[in-house]
Amino acid sequence: MVWRESFLDLILIPLSLLLPMLYHAWLYRAVRRHPLCTAFGIYSASRRVWISGMMKDNDDKKGVLVVQSFRNVIMGSTLMATTAVLFCTGIAAVLSSTYAIKKPLSDAVFGAHGEYMMALKYVALLLLFLFAFLCHSLTICFLNQASFLINTSALSGDLVTGDFVGEILERGFTLNFVGNRLFYAGVPLLLWIFGPLLAFLSSLVMIPILYNLDVVNVSAGGKGSSSEHSSGCVNAKADTNGNGCMHV
């Protein structure tokens, strides 16, 4: 009887986790091979160009612009980190309580409703939001370091280079990206409380949404080139084999 109740959880929940993992593995490969075809690659290249411009002839106006730009990102990461802590606190309160919410919600919901399975659902959510909090906390740390390094580049000489500052900045934005995606992954796990079918359907719906956000597909602007590149290239020519974009 326990096996029959857990059958859907054992099938649908691993699929709900596997599909986003496969998508992000494909996205990582696309960013590495064809960065100009993805929003993450374009943003990364733009940030490096922006850093070079800010560090060149750094004056008071550029310093204020750098601080304001970083402040906006840090405020967003602070909000996400605070939200993750609130989620962790709420989940910990539910785990330590004796309320009926830890018991089966309804007999009409498919999937397992045992005490162990309900605890597993809440622990998975707790760990996910803890990792999201860690990523956003490290994002704030790296962005603060980058803001100091950019404004002290004129005084440090060759000690602080644009490549080093760009690497620090990329680490911060990469951790911010990972933290946001962990929040998105929390949606299927949150719906898992109400049954594995909702978790699986939410994962299926999330993948095309993330694809439209991550992949850039803009038609070329010149005459005779109104067709779109199959790889979604932006401001880059397709290679001789027609397989993708040139690297940044």
In short:
With 248 residues, the protein is mainly alpha-helical. It has helices at 2-33, 39-55, 60-95, 115-151, 153-156, 162-192, 196-214.
How would you characterize the overall build of this protein?
- The structure is a single chain.
- The protein is mainly alpha-helical.
- The protein contains seven helices and no strands.
- α2 (39-55) runs antiparallel to α6, α3 runs antiparallel to α4 and α6 packs antiparallel against α7.
- The longest helix has 37 residues, at 115-151.
- 25% of the residues are buried.
Overview features:
single chain, 248 residues, mainly alpha, 7 helices, 71% helix, disordered C terminus
Question: Mean pLDDT across all residues, rounded?
Answer: 77
> Which stretches are poorly predicted, pLDDT < 50 over at least 5 residues?
104-108, 220-248
Q: Give me the strand/helix succession.
A: HHHHHHH
Structural class from helices and strands?
mainly alpha
Percent helix range: over 70%
